[in-house]
Write a structure and sequence with these properties.
Layout: H1 13-28, H2 41-66, H3 72-100, H4 127-133, H5 140-160, H6 163-170, H7 173-195, H8 217-230, H9 232-244, H10 247-250, H11 254-267, H12 272-288, H13 297-302, H14 305-329, H15 333-359, E1 364-365, E2 369-370, H16 381-387, H17 389-415, H18 426-441, H19 443-459, H20 466-470, H21 473-506, H22 515-524, H23 526-538, E3 543-545, E4 552-554, H24 577-597, E5 608-613, E6 616-626, E7 629-636, H25 643-660, E8 679-696, H26 704-727, H27 732-742, H28 830-833, H29 878-885, H30 890-898, H31 906-917, H32 920-938, H33 947-954, H34 964-968, H35 971-994, H36 1000-1013, E9 1014-1016, H37 1022-1029, E10 1034-1041, E11 1046-1064, H38 1066-1081, H39 1101-1107, E12 1117-1118, E13 1122-1125
Parallel strand pairs: 9-10
Antiparallel strand pairs: 1-2, 3-4, 5-6, 5-11, 6-7, 7-12, 7-13, 8-11, 10-11
Length: about 1150
């Protein structure tokens, strides 16, 4: 994505023409007055006639009513009947036109541009014209149903729009005429969509409309609005009747009603899904015994039986308190009123205390003033945890007050209310049922609402006021709750709108040619903008900024979840997804502490949080909130940083750095420098994850001295790897036990203790299973820069040898050599046409090969550490093997053998190992195998390797040599050889960075650490991902940066580090997601360079788009709903 400029188009040229044709269709319900081809005038005239037909038919009935010939209900029936008759005529005309030509068939295509196909028209009433204007219905049942519905809507609309009725409503002609005209236009839009042709709606859902539901949308809206006025009395009666069906209304005693509300209020606020899951699992476990599947570990941690016991105790205490206080309140009017006032004062004090304890947990108070109690300049986990100890203790106090004290105090307040002493009514049932539910469902909000009602009651004691006279306490709490919720939404929407408006001018990169005009219009019509914000708030709809410009619309009311799909089932999974998988369990534990202590503020469904660590961005959304639990969804954004991604990520870093990296001398109550940003810092979380360090190896990997030492270390590491492999074979311990029990000395001639290849262990699995290599062409002889293929073209695997993926050196590869993917060095075009092969050897001329004579082991236990038989075959000339044998470190070989711990009898282990170390035949086997592997890694010349050579072999591309075919035929040995080479490279880097190794003991300790705590290999390997998920302490990979021309190392270290977390403006997120939905699903504006996806440092527009659920967004990780315990 290139850097954004003010001239980035909102829609490209093609989409602009497409939108200009699509938009009138949507507004008018389906007429196509702008086509992509030249059409005769009668096509447009016919559409106008069909569009105005309902108005004409309704006008006939309206005229007869105004003349006094018909009454209103006869007028409606006449217009409806005419509309029904006309609808049938239109539909049967369409059927006749379709059946007139056998080859004509309505095509249902998923191509949204099918409407642009040209049509040939022969006459005004020809079959082609009719089929274009009236496509018809797929099912006969829909012909009947849609026609009947069209008649009903026309009848109700005619009755609703009678001029006399409208005049009685508004009292003037000035109000009647506009409503009459626009009302009939609305009816024409709905009728045209229903019986003629439907507008092209959302591109994604159009092919999924199997049962033709889309034509019903507009008429249904009209029907609902008209029928409300028609059946207002029936509606009131229906609500009253429904109210009588509420269970509390049928409970004969007031104490029964109170206990029912209290008990079910608590039960419905618990995480019943987890409880039912555990209960079902327990029942199944008892039925099928041990054959039942184990309960997932996550659910075991989330739900404990002690919590069930806690809930039972809380329920019993709540019911006991309710009944006792209700009986106490019935003694006298004076004690009842004064007792409730006392409890109200206690609730107000609790609210102040809980609010103060919550605010001092976060970095900012009200998001503006820096919290003086929050630790300053927090850089490490240990320092942060030491400074946060006091805050955690305060968090425990707040948790107790909020979870145990406040609910029982509010239950006492409600139980003492006088409304529950009388015969309960519908309003009492509704209000108090909601109040008892909120006590547990959202204790903080319920505490605020109850404190406000108590304060108002104390301040306004007059019984003549409407508040005290007409409303009971339950309805008062309901009204206060609605006002609280809408007020929070209004403030958030207003802040979002202000940010969009101001930044469109102050941010130069956001300033467009139309910005000045839009800003002036927003200022001039600010009352109308406020009305739009208020309507959006009342409907709880997102405030939609069109193209994220300061053009505000009321979004379609949608659930907070936004996309109608299961949470966590879709994500754009890639290689970086594994980093989020690894960190989520630790992040969940850290979030549990932070949420329970109040570090993240009010936990409301639909709230969004953003976490940041190095190149990782974590998006957290609250899905559900209940008593002592919170359900969240965690998403991970892409790590590959585009220009827009980088610009917003830098702003996120600036916001967090200014909050958390404060010096000690900073003012106590400093202000939030980034208050206008949608992101407000909250806290830092200690999370166990991988830190990613990129280091430059220049001066290490290209040092001649280091490379010379590399050759000697390589032989030692090969010896160590092979001995450790033989000592840890699965059959070794069994062979040792048998040998010790028999205590015999067998005659051994070329013993093969493991003649059959064993299955690959996870530790031995390497990159060859998923990675292929480049040929060693002549352009690399004088150039150390590697040519490593990383794209899909470089993943064709060789199948000549089973179990290996190595290419045949010297063979001509049919695929292109040049690969222009990221990280690939361009090659000379000469090598794209010509491949240089390796030397050929005549079949009849074979050099004398070195061989190992058939001899007996001098020690009876040597066969326990012997190499597999197939590894002892010969492929090296005698002269070369003799020369290489002098490089074998015999003292190191004996040291490694003596350090083994693989025998049961510890007192005899040293003696046996000493005898094995002196076995010359066993040593010759190791010399032969080790030096052959060494020859296969270094190559024919046996010279000091170059940096390019090391990188190629590290990536699995071995040089040509006589041992190459021998190695490729032994996949397991090849894996061990590559592992030894990579360990040696890591050893070279460590020696250059930390200092040289003094003795064999230190070297062995270093190799043991590599084996147990490190994975050294390729990032593209599956083993790399497995090591991350298994939380291997460290990982290392070698790479090359072609842009800078340097060799690089990547080191991942698992440690507990701090993730910075901030709260996002929820309405800003909803508004941008609503615009994204409109652009992609309606305007089909999926241009990757469109304006609304460009970087916006204050709105974080690009990151917000990424975090949306697919298909709108593209997070690379999305978790299933995660339940967090808050107590």
């Amino acid at each position: 994505m290139r850097r954004m400029s003010p001239d980035v188009p909102l829609l490209n040229d093609y989409k602009q023409d497409f939108f200009l044709k699509r938009f009138p269709q949507t507004v008018l319900g389906g007429p196509r007055f702008k086509l992509g081809f030249c059409a005769p005038p009668y096509v447009y005239v016919n559409q106008i006639i069909l569009f105005l037909m309902p108005w004409v038919l309704g006008g006939i009935g309206t005229l007869l009513y105004q003349l006094g010939i018909l009454k209103d209900y006869y007028t409606a029936s006449l217009s409806g009947g005419l509309m029904l008759f006309t609808a049938f005529i239109i539909q049967f005309t369409s059927l006749y036109a379709q059946n007139k030509s056998a080859t004509v068939q309505r095509m249902l295509t998923t191509d949204i541009l099918a409407e642009e196909d040209e049509h040939e028209f022969t006459s005004c009433a020809g079959a082609e014209t009719v089929k274009f204007l009236i496509p018809g219905k797929k099912y006969i049942a829909n012909i009947v149903f849609h026609s009947v519905l069209a008649g009903i809507v026309c009848a109700l609309g005619t009755w609703y729009l009678l001029p006399n009725r409208i005049t009685l409503l508004y009292g003037s002609i000035g109000g009647t005429a506009p409503l009459f005209v626009f009302g009939w236009i609305t009816l024409c839009i709905g009728e045209y969509s229903l019986i003629v042709n439907t507008a092209t709606e959302t591109a994604t859902f159009q092919p999924q409309d199997t049962y033709e539901i889309t034509p019903l949308m507009r008429p249904i809206y009209i029907f609902f609005f008209v029928s409300v006025d028609l059946a207002h009395r029936l509606l009131v009666m229906f609500i009253i009747s429904a109210g009588t069906a509420i269970i509390p209304y049928y409970i004969p005693s007031t104490i029964g009603v109170l206990l029912f509300m209290t008990g079910f209020g608590l039960l419905l606020s618990l995480n019943l899904s987890d409880m039912s899951f555990v209960f079902k699992h327990s029942m199944m476990k008892h039925k099928v015994g041990n054959k039942s599947e184990a309960l997932p570990s996550g659910s075991e941690k989330l739900f404990m039986w002690k919590e069930c016991v806690l809930y039972i105790i809380v329920l019993v205490l709540a019911l006991l308190e309710t009944s006792l206080l209700h009986q106490f309140a019935g003694f006298s009017q004076i004690s009842k009123s004064s007792s409730q006032d006392i409890v109200g004062c206690i609730l107000m004090m609790l609210l102040i205390i809980v609010w103060i304890l919550k605010e001092i947990q976060s970095i900012y108070i009200f998001g503006i003033f820096r919290n003086p109690f929050y630790p300053k300049d927090v850089q490490t986990v240990t320092v942060f945890l030491e400074k946060q100890t006091k805050l955690l203790k305060i968090g425990v106090v707040r948790r107790i007050l909020l979870t145990l004290v406040s609910p029982f105090a509010m239950i006492a307040f409600l139980s003492l209310d006088s409304s529950l002493q009388e015969l309960h009514s519908f309003s009492v049932s509704i209000g108090f049922t909601r109040a008892f539910r909120m006590v547990w469902q959202n204790t903080e909000n319920a505490l605020l609402e109850t404190a406000i009602v108590s304060a108002v009651h104390l301040l306004i004691s007059s019984s003549d006021l409407w508040w005290n006279r007409s409303l009971n306490t339950g309805i008062r709490l309901l009204l206060v709750g609605v006002i609280r919720d809408r007020l929070i939404q209004f403030v958030s929407k207003l802040q979002f709108a202000t940010t969009v408006l101001v930044t469109s001018w102050t941010e130069k990169k956001q300033r467009r040619k139309t910005t000045t005009i839009l800003c002036v219009l927003n200022i001039l019509f600010s009352p109308f903008v406020m009305v739009i914000i208020v309507i959006s708030t009342l409907l709880s709809s997102p405030l939609l900024p069109l193209f994220t410009l300061p053009v505000f619309l009321v979004g379609f009311p949608r659930p907070i979840q936004v996309w109608p799909g299961a949470v966590g089932t879709t994500a754009c999974v890639c290689a970086d997804t594994v980093y989020y998988y690894q960190m989520v369990p630790s992040l969940t534990a850290a979030l549990q502490t932070a949420m329970a202590s109040g570090n993240l503020g009010l936990l409301l469904p639909g709230s969004h949080y953003l976490g940041r660590f190095q190149d990782r961005l974590i998006w957290i959304m609250i899905l559900e909130r209940g008593y002592t639990y919170c359900c969240i969804n965690i998403k991970g954004l892409e790590l590959q940083e585009t220009s827009c991604h980088t610009a917003e990520a830098q702003r996120v870093d600036e916001v967090f750095d200014s909050a958390f990296e404060q010096e000690e001398y900073t003012k106590i109550c400093s202000l939030n420098e980034h208050f206008g940003n949608v992101l407000t810092p909250c806290t830092v979380l200690p999370v166990r994850l991988y830190s990613d360090a990129r280091i430059v190896l220049s001066g290490i990997i290209d040092s001649h001295e280091n490379l010379k030492e590399f050759k000697g270390d390589l032989v030692k590491v090969l010896v160590w790897i092979l001995i450790q492999y033989c000592a840890k074979r699965p059959t070794l311990q069994e062979d040792i036990h048998k040998s010790e029990s028999k205590r015999e000395t067998p005659l051994v001639i070329l013993p093969a203790s493991n003649t059959s290849p064993r299955s690959k262990s996870p530790e031995d699995t390497d990159s060859l299973d998923s990675k292929t290599f480049d040929d060693w062409s002549d352009d690399n002889i004088f150039d150390d820069e590697p040519t490593i293929k990383k794209g899909k073209e470089g993943k064709k695997q060789l199948k000549d040898f089973p179990g290996t993926n190595l290419p045949i050196p010297g063979s001509v590869d049919s695929q292109r050599v040049g690969d222009h993917s990221t990280g690939t060095v361009p090659e000379n075009s000469l090598y794209k046409a010509v491949m240089l092969g390796y030397p050929a050897v005549d079949k009849g001329k074979q050099e004398d090969k070195a061989y190992v004579p058939l001899m007996d082991f001098s020690c009876s236990h040597s066969h326990l550490l012997s190499l597999p038989e197939e590894w002892r075959s010969n492929c090296m000339p005698k002269a070369i093997m003799k020369e290489l044998s002098s490089l074998f470190p015999e003292d190191w070989y004996q040291f490694v053998l003596r350090q083994l711990e693989c025998f049961y009898s510890e007192e005899k282990a040293s003696t046996l190992l000493e005898e094995i170390a002196k076995d010359k035949v066993l040593k010759d086997f190791y010399v032969h195998t080790v030096m052959t592997c060494y020859f296969g890694l270094i190559g024919i010349d046996n010279v000091t390797p170059s940096p390019g050579h090391i990188l190629r072999v590290f990536n699995g591309v071995l040089p040509w040599s006589g041992a190459l075919d021998w190695l490729t035929e032994k996949p397991e040995l090849l894996q061990l050889t590559l592992k030894a080479f990579r360990y040696t490279l890591k050893l070279m880097v460590d020696k250059a960075s930390l200092g040289s190794i003094e003795d064999f003991k230190e070297l062995a300790s270093c190799l043991h650490e590599y084996e147990s705590d490190w994975y050294i290999g390729l990032i593209s390997d599956e083993k790399w991902k497995e090591s991350i998920l298994q939380e291997k302490p460290c990982l290392f990979a070698l790479g090359y940066d072609p842009n800078m021309g340097v060799y690089t190392g990547r080191v991942l270290t698992l440690q507990e580090l701090l993730i910075q977390v901030g709260k996002l403006n929820a309405e800003a997120v909803r508004g941008q997601w609503a615009n994204l939905s409109w652009e992609l699903l309606y305007a089909t504006n999926d241009d990757e360079e469109r304006y609304s996806i460009q970087a916006h440092p204050l709105l974080l527009r690009n990151l917000t788009v990424q975090a949306a659920d697919p298909p709108l967004g593209y997070p690379i990780y999305s978790s299933k709903p995660v339940c967090i315990r808050l107590f």
